[in-house]
Write a structure and sequence with these properties.
The protein folds into 2 domains: about 190 residues, no CATH class; about 200 residues, Cytochrome Bc1 Complex, Chain D, domain 2 (Orthogonal Bundle). Helices cover about 30% and strands about 10% of the residues. The chain contains 14 helices and 8 strands. The strands form 3 sheets. A 3-stranded antiparallel β-sheet has the order 1-2-6. Helix 7 crosses helix 8.
């Protein structure tokens, strides 16, 4: 492969991949060599153009429309930092996210190397993401969660330390595939642009104290904007950028997948709506803080009851009736919760406790605690585990969680008119929300459709 001549030309290139980008194609997710032994140029080339022998339907599948020069910057350690690059955590073999299997494989490889060289290092393992801020990486190894430090809004206080101005949460590393149309960024939507997202990540996760040159940020942003889950999704995104009606990003569906699409339209599309499947237009329940109908095309943050405790205490609503334990037995990240006291616009103070306050920790709006950004579902079959805390290991667990949530919401609706207009200014009449679990016979086709998305 004339890779060096291609790199020197800095020409735009297109890669359509379905491969294990940085491994041997097995289930261990092990790396072929320590990253420190390879240049950013080599790492980018390997990630974007793996040998044909490594192709597999089990690995990542992505479509890149940018230049190698931009990709190299994504793999280059940040100056003045802790040795990390963007790709340290956004792993190509994980579709540019991060999985527990990959973290553990890297940990085991590091231990093997340290038997020969006690000073061997891997920048993935830094004290900022250690459970003890030193050497205990249990949470990172078993859950692939990293520590995120957030400034507290002025009206939000930690119950254990009212003078604290920050709080920390543990979150999954999101994929950057399809980032071109998934703004705002981060699970809580705190970054409006890819530019601000990249700068914030370099400061916090790479601990860089240097001013990052604008041309470096521009290359990282372009790399992310040119990375898609499929050619069809790329075409849809480009059309949206140009302000024209986008073509469908869906692949050709068979009869089972078409049946799943109909189920998706009934049960999922009100939150995962629009051509990007990121637009929430449902005002029946989980209403947006602004109240009233959603503006056309508006993106809202929703609470799907992921976290600890589950379900969380209701926000500014009638007390819950005695509630069956709908979520018992479902996978959970098992994270510790933090108690907060939130001052409302009226001056009243209300308590809440959660493992992650989500959007509420950004805005200070009590109604937004537990709400998170709506992700696109294109390429979803390649981005397990799921949710902001990696608590759902596979699509079966995701569907089981939503089935429990639907039953929970239906219970609240029927038992107490929890979503009635007099309760929150939106909602629906008691018992009339129309929410119900997906019929058992429709779950298989729904899962087939989700797996097909973005291919």
């Amino acid at each position: 492969m004339a890779s060096h001549r291609w790199m020197e030309r800095a020409a735009s290139v297109i890669f359509s991949l379905a491969a294990v980008a940085c491994g041997d194609g097995g289930e261990s997710g092990s790396l072929p060599a320590p990253e420190a032994d390879k240049s950013p140029e080599t790492l980018a080339e390997e990630a974007l153009s793996p040998p044909a022998a490594s192709r597999s339907t089990r690995g990542p599948a992505f479509h890149y429309e940018g230049s190698l020069a931009d990709a190299i910057e994504f793999f280059r350690p940040h100056a003045g930092g802790n040795g990390r690059s963007c790709a340290t955590c956004h792993r190509p073999e994980d579709n540019f996210a991060l999985t527990p299997a990959t973290v553990e494989a890297r940990w085991q490889r590091l231990q093997q190397r340290r038997r020969i060289d006690p000073a061997a290092d891997d920048p993935l393992f830094r004290p900022i993401d250690a459970d003890d801020f030193a050497n205990d990486f249990t949470t990172l190894r078993t859950k692939a969660l990293v520590r995120v430090t957030l400034p507290l809004p002025p009206n939000v206080k930690r119950a254990d330390d009212p003078a604290a101005t920050t709080t920390t949460v543990l979150r999954a590393v999101p994929t950057v595939v399809n980032a071109a149309f998934t703004a705002p960024f981060q699970a809580d939507g705190r970054e409006a642009t890819l530019d601000s997202q990249a700068r914030a990540a370099i400061r916090s996760h790479s601990e860089s104290t240097n001013e990052v040159p604008a041309e470096v940020i521009a290359k990282i942003v372009r790399f992310q904007r040119d990375l898609f889950s499929s050619v069809r999704v790329a075409r849809m995104s480009r059309a949206l950028d140009e302000g024209v009606v986008p073509p469908s990003a869906e692949p050709t569906l068979d009869a089972v997948e078409r049946a799943g699409r109909r189920t998706f339209d009934e049960f999922c599309a009100r939150c995962h709506g629009g051509p990007t499947q990121t637009r929430n237009t449902d005002a029946r329940f989980l209403p947006v803080p602004a109240r009233g109908p959603l503006a056309s095309g508006a993106q809202a943050f929703v609470n799907v009851f992921v976290g600890t405790p589950r379900p969380p205490p209701p926000a500014l609503a009638p007390p819950l009736p005695p509630t069956p334990r709908f979520f018992d037995g479902l996978p959970t990240a098992g994270l510790a919760d933090t108690a907060f006291r939130v001052t409302l616009p009226s001056g009243a103070t209300v308590p809440t406790a959660t493992s992650d306050g989500g959007r509420g920790l950004v805005t200070g709006d009590f109604r937004e605690f537990g709400r998170f950004d709506v992700p696109t579902l294109f390429g979803i079959d390649r981005t397990a585990p799921y949710f902001h805390d990696n608590s759902a290991p596979d699509l079966d667990a995701v569907i089981a969680h939503y089935q429990a949530m639907f039953r929970f919401i239906a219970f609240l609706d029927l038992e107490g008119g929890f979503f009635a207009p007099e309760a929150n200014g939106q909602g629906c009449a008691p018992g009339a929300c129309g929410i119900r679990p997906v019929p058992d016979a429709e779950i298989g086709p729904l899962k087939a459709y989700l797996r097909r998305l973005g291919r």
